[in-house]
Write a structure and sequence with these properties.
heterotrimer, A mainly alpha, B mainly alpha, C mainly alpha, A: mainly alpha, 58% helix, extended, disordered C terminus, C: mainly alpha, Cytochrome C Oxidase, Chain A, 18 helices, disordered N terminus
Chain lengths: 155, 220, 632
C-alpha cells in the first residue's frame, strides 16, 4: 500500500476511521485563543504576523475590544468621507465601499462575535450561510441586470 | 485505535458535545447563518428594484446621510458595549456587566428612536410602503431590521433582569453570550444596509454636492 | 437552575399516558410518530385531491368539477404533497432515527422539537381550512406573481396560502436547526462524522439546506402577504414591480427544496440496500461526498425552472451547465447503490423491493430531468404533462417509494411488530404498476402538447386513451395505499412481537429493544467504525470488508454517571402554547385586506391575541427548567 494511487483509492473508498473529516480535537475547557495565524502556524510569515496582530491576549481585555471599536468607528468615518468624494473614485466607488463594509463585517464577526477565538466549526457554519447568500444573490442580480453601478438620479 | 480517545473523556457526561461547542451556541450560529439568507433576500429585493420606481420620492430626495451616519455610529458603539458587557461577565464583574448591558439597551433604543424619526420624516415627505417600489422595499427591509433590534433590546433587558440579580453563573454568562451574538449580527446587517442602501444607493457620482443636497433637505 | 423564581404558568404534565401526555411530549420518538401519522393523513387528503383531478381528466370535456374547484385541487395537491407529506414524513424519520442511529437519548432541543411539530400541525390545518372558509388557494403550488395579487386572486385563498406556508416555514426552520445541532453535537463517543450512517449524513445535508433555503421562501411569502394585506408593491407591475422576482425567490428556495425532498429517501435506501444485500455500502465516502456536493450545487441551478422567462442566452447557458453537472453526483450515488447490490445475497422483502423500485423510478425521473436541462427542449416541454411526469417520477417514484422502504424497514423498530410481507409485496406491486400506468403515459401526453393545469381538453386531440390509462393507474395507486392501510391495521392488531434486530441490521438503532425504551440506550455505545453494530456482531468480517486489523471491539464501559439513573428532559406544554400563539399571530393578518378600503389599516386584533399567548408561552418556556424538580 505504498504507492500513492492505491493510497488515494483507499482514502476515497475505504472507511478506515482516519482523521479526515473528523472535527479537530477540542478541549471544552480551552478558552484562550491560541497565539497563531488564521491558518495555524503553517504558511508564510505574513500569517504569523496577522496572528500576532489579531491575538487578543490570554484573555482579551476591554482595552483590546475598545481599540477594535475605535477602528470600526474610524472605518465608518472613512466610508462617510469617501461618500462625500465619490466622484474621485469614479467607477471604483462601489467596489471600494463594498470592501470597506466587508472589512467592518469581518472585524465584528471575528472579534466581537469571537469567531477568531472560537471553534473553527462555527466559522464554517456561518461562512457557509453567508457565502451562499452572497453567491446566489449576486447571480440573481446579474441575471436581473442590476449589477451595473448606475447612479440613482431622480428624473 | 487512537481516534477513539478524542471523545473518550466525554464518557458519562451527556451534556458534553462532540464538537466542544455547547448546543445553544451552535444553534445560535446555525440560526445566524440562516438569517443571512433572510436579510440577503430582502437586500437583494431592494437592489433588484433599485432604479425601478415609477414615481417619487426617490432615495436621493429623502435619504438623510448625516443623521443615518450618527445612528450607524450609535449601533456600532452598542456592539462595542455588548462585547465589553460579555467580557466583564466572563470576568465575573457584575456591576460593570450590568452597566454595559444597560448601555447596549439604551444605545439600541436610541437607534430605534432614530429609525422612528426617519420613518416619520419619510412619511411626511410622502413616502409610504404603498407609494412606490423604493418605499415598499426600503420600509420593509429596514423595518424588519428594526424589528430585530427591538427583539434584541427586549432580549437584553430580559436577560439583565432575569439573570443578574444574584451572582453570575456560567449559565447566565452563556445566556448573555447568545444575546450578544444576536446583537452583533443585527449590527453587521446594518453595516451592509448602511453601505449598500444609504451610501452607494444615494451616491450620484457628483461628490460633495450630495451632502449639500442632503443639508438642504434637513434645512427645508 | 434560574436565579430568580418565576411563577409557574402551567404545571407540567405528569402522566405518561393519555391525550395531555401527547400534547406535552418532548420525546423524539413520540414526536416522530405524531409527524408520521399527520403526514400520512395528509397523504390521504392529497391523494383524494389527485384522484378527483384524475377523474376530471378521465375523458375529454368532462365536467366532474368546475375549473375553479380544479384550480384549487391541483394547487392544494401540490402544496399538500410537498409541504405536508414528504417533508414531515422525512421529519418523522429524522425524529425517530437520528438519535437512535447516532446513539443519543434525545435530540438537542426536545422542547423546540415539540414546537416544530405543533407549528406544522396548526399551519397545515389552517391551510386546509381554506376549503371551507371561502375557497382554497388556486394559483398553483408555486404561486407565481402577479397571478397571486389581489387583482387576479380576489378571494382569501392565496392569503391562506401565504400565511399558512409561513407558519410551516417557521416549523421547518426550527426543526432544521434542531437536527443540525443534534447531528453535530450529540453523536456517541467515537462516531466521527465519517462514521455516521449515510441516512444521518443525508439528514444533515437536508437540514442544512432547509435552514438556508426556508428563509428565502419566508421572505417571498412575507412580501406576497404584505402585498395582499398592506398593499405594498413587491409584485405589483403597475408600480414597476417585477413578477420575475417572485420566480427567482421561489425557485431559489424551490430547487434546494427538491433536494430536501429527495435526499432523505436517498439516505433511507443507503441504509436498506446494504442490510438486505448483506454487503457494506459501496463507496461510503463517495456517496457522502456526492450528497454534500448535491447540497451545495443545488443552490446554483434554480433558473432552469425559468428557461422560458427570457433571462437571456448567457443565464440560460450557465444554468444549463450547472443543471447538467448536478446529474453527476446523483449518478455517483446510483452507481454506488448498484455496486452495493451487485454480488450481494439479496433478501427481496418488501423494504428491499421498495428500495430497488426507488432506484429504477428515480433513474427514469432523473433522465427525463436531464432532457429539460437544455433550454430548447425545455421550451417545448415547459408547462406540459412531460414536466408532470418528470417530477412525479422523482417525487413519487423517488421520495414516496423511498419513504415506504424506510417505513417497512423501521416499522419493527418503531412499533415492535413486523408489517406483513405477503400483503406488503401486494402493496408494492400494485403501487409500482399503478404509478407507472399513471405517470408513464404523461410523457407522451406532454410531448404531444397537453398543457398542465388545464381542467379539461377538447375531443379529438388524441389524448383520451392515455388519460384514461392514467386514471386507471391512479386508482391502482389508491388500491395500493388501501392495501398498506389494511397491512398496518392487521399488523398492529396482531399479537406478534418482532425481534430487536429482525433484519440483521448494521446500525446502532438495532442494538436496542424494539420498540425502544424512553431513554433509548441504557448505556451510551462506544463507536469504533462505520456500521459499528455489524462489526460488533461479526468481528471476523472487519478485516475482509474494511481492510482493518481484526480486533475485538472496545469493551463497553459501564455508564456510571448519576449512579446509573438516566435523566431525560421533562414534558412541557409550552411548545404547544407558543406554537398556538405564533400561528394565531400570523393568521391574524387575515383580518386586513389591502383591497377593501373600509378595513384599511385595521388593527389585526387576532394577531395581538396570538402575540400575547405566544409571549406568555415563551416566558413560561424560558423560565421552566428543562428537567423537573428531582432531576438534575
Amino acid at each position: 500500500m505504498t504507492n500513492p494511487i492505491s493510497r488515494a483509492w483507499r482514502k476515497l473508498f475505504y472507511q478506515d476511521g482516519g482523521s479526515y473529516f473528523l472535527l479537530p480535537k477540542v478541549d471544552s475547557s480551552f478558552l484562550d485563543p491560541p497565539n497563531e495565524g488564521p491558518f495555524g502556524d503553517a504558511g508564510p510569515p505574513v500569517w504569523r504576523w496577522i496572528g500576532r496582530m489579531t491575538y487578543g491576549g490570554k484573555v482579551a481585555t476591554p482595552f483590546f475590544y475598545t481599540v477594535i471599536g475605535v477602528w470600526l468607528a474610524l472605518l465608518t468615518l472613512i466610508e462617510v468621507y469617501f461618500f462625500t468624494i465619490d466622484a474621485f473614485f469614479g467607477a471604483f466607488f462601489v467596489t471600494i465601499m463594498l470592501l470597506l463594509a466587508l472589512l467592518k463585517f469581518i472585524i465584528v464577526v471575528a472579534f466581537f462575535m469571537h469567531l477568531r477565538f472560537d471553534k473553527s466549526l462555527l466559522t464554517l457554519v456561518f461562512t457557509a450561510g453567508f457565502l451562499i447568500a452572497i453567491l446566489v444573490f449576486v447571480i440573481m442580480l446579474s441575471v436581473q441586470g442590476q449589477l451595473t453601478p448606475a447612479p440613482m438620479v431622480a428624473p | 485505535m487512537a481516534q477513539a480517545a478524542t471523545v473518550q473523556e466525554q464518557h458519562g457526561h451527556i451534556a458534553d458535545t462532540n464538537t466542544g461547542i455547547s448546543n445553544r451556541k451552535l444553534l445560535m450560529w446555525v440560526f445566524l447563518a440562516s438569517d443571512c439568507l433572510f436579510f440577503g433576500s430582502f437586500i437583494a429585493t431592494y437592489l433588484v428594484y433599485r432604479n425601478e420606481s415609477i414615481v417619487g420620492p426617490y432615495p436621493n430626495e429623502v435619504l438623510d446621510i448625516p443623521i443615518t451616519s450618527v445612528s450607524t455610529f450609535v449601533l456600532l458603539m452598542s456592539s462595542l458595549a455588548m462585547v465589553l458587557a460579555l467580557n466583564y461577565a466572563q470576568k465575573d464583574q457584575l456591576g460593570l456587566t450590568r452597566f454595559w448591558i444597560l448601555a447596549v439597551a439604551v444605545l439600541g433604543a436610541i437607534f430605534l428612536g432614530f429609525q422612528v424619526f426617519e420613518f416619520a420624516t419619510f412619511v411626511n415627505e410622502g413616502l409610504t410602503i404603498r407609494s412606490n417600489l423604493f418605499g415598499t422595499t426600503f420600509f420593509i427591509l429596514t423595518g424588519f431590521h428594526g424589528l430585530h433590534v427591538l427583539i434584541g433590546v427586549l432580549w437584553l433587558l430580559g436577560t439583565a433582569f432575569a439573570h443578574f440579580k444574584g451572582a453570575l453563573t456560567s449559565r447566565s454568562v452563556e445566556d448573555l453570550e447568545m444575546a450578544g451574538l444576536y446583537w452583533h449580527f443585527v449590527d453587521i446587517v446594518w453595516i451592509i444596509i448602511f453601505t449598500v442602501i444609504y451610501l452607494i444607493g444615494f451616491s450620484d457620482g457628483e461628490g460633495l454636492e450630495t451632502i449639500e443636497h442632503a443639508a438642504t433637505i434637513i434645512g427645508g | 437552575m434560574t436565579t430568580i423564581a418565576f411563577p409557574t404558568l402551567i404545571s407540567r404534565p405528569t402522566s405518561y399516558t393519555g391525550l395531555w401526555s401527547w400534547i406535552g411530549t418532548v420525546d423524539h420518538k413520540r414526536i416522530g410518530t405524531l409527524y408520521g401519522v399527520t403526514a400520512f393523513l395528509y397523504f390521504l387528503i392529497g391523494g383524494i385531491e389527485a384522484l378527483i383531478i384524475r377523474g376530471q381528466l378521465n375523458t375529454a370535456e368532462n365536467d366532474l368539477v368546475s375549473p375553479e374547484i380544479y384550480n384549487q385541487l391541483f394547487t392544494m395537491h401540490g402544496t399538500t404533497m410537498v409541504f405536508m407529506v414528504v417533508m414531515p414524513m422525512s421529519a418523522a424519520f429524522f425524529n425517530w432515527m437520528i438519535p437512535l442511529m447516532i446513539g443519543a437519548r434525545d435530540v438537542a432541543f426536545p422542547r423546540l422539537n415539540g414546537f416544530s411539530y405543533w407549528a406544522f400541525l396548526f399551519g397545515s390545518i389552517f391551510l386546509n381550512l381554506s376549503f371551507v372558509l371561502g375557497g382554497a388557494p388556486d394559483a398553483g403550488w408555486f404561486g407565481y406573481a402577479n397571478l397571486t395579487g389581489n387583482t387576479y386572486s380576489p378571494g382569501d385563498g392565496v392569503t391562506f396560502w401565504a400565511l399558512g406556508l409561513t407558519i410551516l416555514g417557521v416549523a421547518s426552520l426550527a426543526a432544521s436547526f434542531n437536527f443540525v445541532v443534534t447531528i453535530l453535537n450529540m453523536r456517541a463517543p467515537g462516531m466521527g462524522l465519517m462514521k455516521m450512517p449515510v441516512f444521518v449524513w443525508m439528514a444533515l445535508v437536508t437540514n442544512v439546506l432547509m435552514a438556508l433555503a426556508m428563509p428565502v421562501i419566508a421572505v417571498a411569502l412575507i412580501q406576497l402577504g404584505l402585498d395582499r394585506v398592506l398593499g405594498t408593491n413587491f409584485f405589483n407591475p403597475v408600480a414597476g414591480g417585477d413578477p420575475v422576482l417572485w420566480q427567482h425567490l421561489f425557485w431559489l428556495f424551490g430547487h434546494p427544496e427538491v433536494y430536501i425532498l429527495i435526499l432523505p429517501a436517498m439516505g433511507i435506501v443507503s441504509e436498506t440496500l446494504p442490510v438486505f444485500s448483506k454487503k457494506p455500502l459501496f463507496g461510503y465516502p463517495a456517496i457522502v461526498l456526492a450528497g454534500a456536493v448535491i447540497g451545495f450545487m443545488g443552490w446554483f441551478v434554480w433558473s432552469h425552472h425559468m428557461f422560458t422567462v427570457g433571462l437571456g442566452p448567457a443565464a440560460n447557458s450557465a444554468f444549463t451547465i450547472s443543471t447538467m453537472l448536478i446529474a453527476v453526483p446523483t449518478g455517483v450515488k446510483i452507481f454506488n447503490w448498484m455496486g452495493t447490490v451487485w454480488g450481494g445475497k439479496l433478501h427481496l422483502n418488501t423494504s428491499m423491493l421498495f428500495s430497488l423500485g426507488f432506484i429504477a423510478m428515480f433513474v427514469i425521473g432523473g433522465l427525463s430531468g436531464v432532457t429539460h436541462a437544455s433550454p430548447p427542449t425545455d421550451a417545448q416541454q415547459q408547462d406540459t404533462y412531460y414536466i408532470v411526469a418528470h417530477f412525479h417520477y422523482v417525487l413519487f417514484g423517488g421520495s414516496i417509494l423511498g419513504l415506504f422502504a424506510g417505513g417497512y424497514y423501521w416499522w419493527p423498530k418503531m412499533t415492535g411488530k413486523r408489517l406483513g410481507e405477503t400483503i406488503g409485496k401486494w402493496h408494492f406491486w400494485t403501487m409500482l404498476i399503478g404509478f407507472n400506468l399513471t405517470f408513464g403515459p404523461m410523457h407522451w401526453l406532454g410531448l404531444n402538447g397537453m398543457p398542465r393545469r388545464i381542467s379539461t381538453y377538447a375531443e379529438g386531440m388524441g389524448w383520451e386513451t392515455s388519460n384514461a390509462i392514467a386514471t386507471v393507474g391512479a386508482m391502482l395507486i389508491a388500491v395500493g395505499v388501501l392495501i398498506f392501510i389494511i397491512n398496518v391495521i392487521r399488523t398492529m392488531s396482531s399479537k406478534q412481537k418482532a425481534e430487536d434486530d429482525p433484519w440483521d441490521g448494521r446500525t446502532l438503532e438495532w442494538s436496542i429493544p424494539s420498540p425502544p425504551p424512553a431513554y433509548n440506550f441504557a448505556r451510551i455505545p462506544q463507536v469504533k467504525s462505520v456500521d459499528d453494530f455489524w462489526y460488533t456482531k461479526h468481528p471476523e468480517l472487519l478485516h475482509d470488508e474494511r481492510g482493518e486489523q481484526t480486533e475485538s471491539a472496545a469493551p463497553v464501559e459501564e455508564d456510571t454517571h448519576g449512579g446509573g439513573s438516566i435523566h431525560l428532559p421533562s414534558m412541557s406544554y409550552y411548545p404547544f402554547v407558543v406554537a398556538i400563539g405564533m400561528s394565531i399571530g400570523i393568521v391574524g393578518f387575515m383580518d386586513i385586506r389591502a383591497d377593501i378600503p373600509s378595513t384599511d389599516l385595521q388593527l389585526p386584533w387576532l394577531s395581538v391575541v396570538g402575540i400575547v399567548v405566544g409571549m406568555w408561552g415563551l416566558l413560561g418556556w424560558i423560565f421552566e427548567p428543562v428537567t423537573a424538580e428531582g432531576g438534575h
